Prior knowledge:
By secondary structure, the chain is of the alpha+beta class. It has helices spanning 2-22, 36-46, 48-67, 104-170, 176-210, 234-244, 246-267, 306-372, 378-413, and strands at residues 33-34, 74-82, 88-99, 221-222, 273-282, 287-296. It has one domain (2-68, 100-268, 305-413): Outer membrane efflux proteins (OEP), CATH 1.20.1600. Helix 1 (2-22) runs antiparallel to helix 8 (306-372). 68% of the residues lie in helices and 11% in strands. The N and C termini lie far apart (93 Å).
Amino acid sequence: MKRNCRLKTAWSGLAVAFILLSAPSVSAAEEPRLSLESLIEEVTRSNPEIKAARERWEASKAVVPQVQTLPDPKLQFGYQRMPMTDPLQGALYGFGQEVPFPGKLRLRGEVATRQADRLEQEYLATGLRLIARLKEAYFDLHFVYKAIEVVEKNKLLLIQFEKTAKARYAVGQAAQQDVFRAQLEISRVLDRLAVLEQQKESLHAAINRLLNRPPAGPLGTPKEIHVPLLTQSLPELSRRAEEFSPILEASSKGIERSEQSVSLAKREYYPDFDLNALGTRNDRINDNGYQVMLGIKIPLFYETKQRQGVKEALAGLAGAREEFTATRQEVLFRVKDAFVHTQRAERLITILRDAIIPQATLALQSAQASYGVAKVDFLTLLNSLLTLQESELEMHGEMVAHEKAVARLEELTGGSLTGPKKERKSVP
């Protein structure tokens, strides 16, 4: 009678295991769902690094009218007395104005404008970079939640396996080693859950930091992610990166700025002017007069000043061009690297979803049924469960890897790959 009761308990445990395997896991405490779109809006609005980049851009735009404006004029006052037969004495008053050689102010404005354009692109690049980092952290958090769900489900299965092993051991149909192995795997699952919980809290803090929230603040559960196939080819993505990448555009604006700096440095060989207009008053004869003076600044020390300035500007231009080449190579490499990651992830997701996981599920179900009638040992049953668990975790990991690679591609190509097609930028 006891033996029948224990066998009934064992079969009940296996039945429960079948139900747990097929039923979706429900978290004990329902958390609010995280929307990636709302997080992107918040990071764009609240992140201090993005704000700082924007303020640098705004500050650079305010420089342009300053450098295009003439130097401040000088008001002049004085008194003169010249001893002579008929002494000359009286007040002096007027103004002076420094006038740069024609073209210098315009070139200074061009240099400042190109600098402002470069900082604008850096501001856009900062926004795209932080949005990509936010997406990566969000997808990592999604994987952690999925991993916890899978491991929690398997923990319940292992508990049932332990009960089944104990029942079979009690009637002499299983070895005590089966019970110990089940308990060991339960302990390993608890250890894994502790690691996943730590990773979850770290990712919560990372996302809150990007959102400029308190790191310990509550967050929520990521929504389910979908993995659409990447429809763009590698050549198309490379073209998009060269046309729309703010990183490349900022480097290109750096070249334009350096070119204008060279023109300005060469213009420094030409003299500036100092114009003074004075009114005079002769108190002796009660009469007024005036005088006008034009001063010319002679670039006398051109060997150590203007010529070295041109040399500096030319070196800066050469460096900007080399920097652009290096940046372009880096961007194109990162585009290809992210592209091959998406291609690999898409292939593995298909294989895991359509072949490996269904096969592993059937293998586990078969092992459960066979273990109940003593046709397979406990190690086979356990390996079947662990194989299914690792396959499910691998599939979720590849889904996350795919979406993170797409996020990197969007950072490099200047925006969403699923939105409306961008227009080609005009080339000056």
